[in-house]
Amino acid sequence: MRYRLLGRTGLRVSEAFLGAMTFGQDWGWGASLEECRKIFTAYAEAGGNVVDTANRYTEGSSEKIVGELLGSDRDRFVLSTKYTLTMDGTDPNAGGNHRKNLVRSVEASLQRLGTDYIDLLWVHIWDPDTPIEETMRALDDLVRAGKVLYTGISDAPAWLVARANSIAEFRGWTPFAGLQLPYSLLKRDIERELLPMASALELSVAAWSPLAAGVLAGKFTRGGADGPSRVDRATVSERDLTIARTVDTVADELGVSSSQVAIAWTRARRPWIHPILGARNLEQLTDNLAAVDLELPEEAVTRLDKASAIELGFPMEFIADTTDFVYGPSGERVDGRRPR
């Protein structure tokens, strides 16, 4: 496992993050404490150093299990958790990105995790009812207090993230260092606005669900749909199955698993994307870890890109289509900052 810097910080984070959404059996499909220990140990022995959880994962059990597993080695790991989601649906202030929920959520997370600081705290999802200025200032206060070291945001529009970091820059507050977003061959929407923004602002991206909840692992194309699943077969489109079959074909040609191909694709052209590996058992985690060392042939990447291509829409397609009109023939002789 190699390491990269988180965003524009000096924090070293491993190529792949360990997702702890499966830690705990409160939701009916997670892993037992014993299995979680095996998963965590295998990840650590492979050189991984980022464990990602959230206050709401398995109703708090995930954070408790993560804290227990880290134990005396806590300082060797980058502990990543999130706030925003309510832990009490009867209280209107128990959810959202406002200061009150942030402070209460972080204190509760620290207690469950058994630590006095969080390395990387994510805003779990955009709360349109809380001004971003309030969120950024409140996060900065926690950084200054030493309870949080770095911050990121998950599941938010590009314009909001750009505005948030601009505000932080001008006011001397802590900016977001990374984004946490869904990214897979089945879900490439973030290529329209979010990934270009992340590249321009030098934000790391933690990619959740790189296997599309198992669809790209062959769950419905290789006869592996038995057991608990978060995906209803009826919701899987023919397009999704076609893409999954392409992944299967590439995997068979390379002599690796479909999971490894799907995960490796997320980083094929963007090494600053860190897939979050979520597993319910040691076998799944071991298989997924092998993707870190898999370098897909360019032909395979092109084939996968073509099978899963999406329309970028306006304005990106319009900008690309009007290049000659804007720059004229001389534009072809200019080496720009980014490939066209």
UniProtKB/TrEMBL annotation:
Gene3D superfamilies: NADP-dependent oxidoreductase domain. Keywords: Oxidoreductase. Pfam families: Aldo_ket_red (PF00248). InterPro entries: AKR_Detox_Biosynth, NAD(P)_OxRdtase_dom_sf, NADP_OxRdtase_dom. It comes from the Bacteria. Residues 18-307 form the NADP-dependent oxidoreductase domain. This is Aldo/keto reductase.
